[in-house]
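tokens incoming
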């Protein structure tokens, strides 16, 4: 019968030097762990700060052409530390600029009759100081003009002739200045039709949203010929420039 030898596992007893070394390594690991904790805490604070800064530049109010985070984007701005940023305004030694006084529409003389300190009335005038105050007049009010339009018949050709204004146009319900204000409010000031309606109500002219939309569309139709002429010049131009508005090609975003 064959006998097999069974190996016995054993470990030598640790010496005092080995215990000291192990404790020293354990202390070093604890210090390293504490250092990593402090570093992680610092990185979390910096991450929150960067998120707050990013929220200022990436939000629904920032146009896509500015907030685009793509690599190599033409309008990407490098992050400059706060202490290295240039302060707004002219540099020291640069001559200052002051707005020139406006031409007054009227002049008013003010006279004091009571001392604000002792409430006495014995005042002696020693000089005059000048101060301008700019104010906006009250809101404009709509002026409604009713025209009696003379209707005639030409005795030579029999055609009907209607009287016109000096500008050779007939009254159209809304005057040219009002139409211009409606179009500029929509196109230049980018007011929604609802706010445009509120603006005209403050001026004493209630108008429906459909009326405002009709004025804007009528202006668009009257300028259609001019737009066509501009388009023809663009198509015939040798070089045509485009903005950096992105568009998708094959599911990927590209720019001209």
């Amino acid at each position: 019968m064959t006998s097999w030898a069974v190996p016995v596992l054993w470990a030598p007893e640790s010496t005092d030097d080995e215990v000291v070394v192990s404790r020293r390594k354990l202390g070093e690991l604890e210090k390293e762990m504490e250092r990593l904790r402090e570093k992680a805490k610092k990185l979390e604070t910096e991450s929150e700060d960067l998120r707050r800064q990013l929220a200022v530049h990436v939000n629904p109010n920032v146009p896509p052409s500015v907030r685009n985070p793509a690599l190599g984007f033409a309008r990407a701005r490098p992050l400059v530390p706060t202490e290295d940023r240039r302060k707004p305004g002219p540099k020291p030694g640069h001559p200052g600029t002051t707005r020139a006084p406006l031409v007054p529409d009227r002049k008013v003389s003010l006279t004091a009759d009571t001392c604000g300190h002792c409430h006495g009335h014995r005042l002696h005038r020693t000089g005059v100081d000048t101060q301008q105050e700019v104010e906006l007049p009250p809101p404009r009010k709509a002026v409604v003009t009713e025209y009696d339009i003379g209707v005639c018949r030409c005795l030579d050709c029999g055609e009907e002739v209607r009287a016109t204004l000096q500008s050779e146009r007939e009254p159209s319900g809304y005057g040219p200045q009002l139409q211009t204000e409606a179009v500029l409010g929509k196109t230049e000031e980018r007011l929604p039709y609802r706010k445009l309606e509120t603006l005209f109500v403050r001026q004493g002219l209630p108008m429906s949203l459909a009326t405002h939309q009709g004025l804007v569309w009528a202006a668009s139709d009257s300028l259609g010929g001019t737009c066509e002429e501009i388009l023809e010049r663009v198509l015939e131009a040798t070089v045509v420039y485009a903005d950096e508005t992105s568009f998708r090609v094959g599911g990927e975003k590209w720019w001209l």
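note: Residues 71-76 have pLDDT under 50 and may be disordered.
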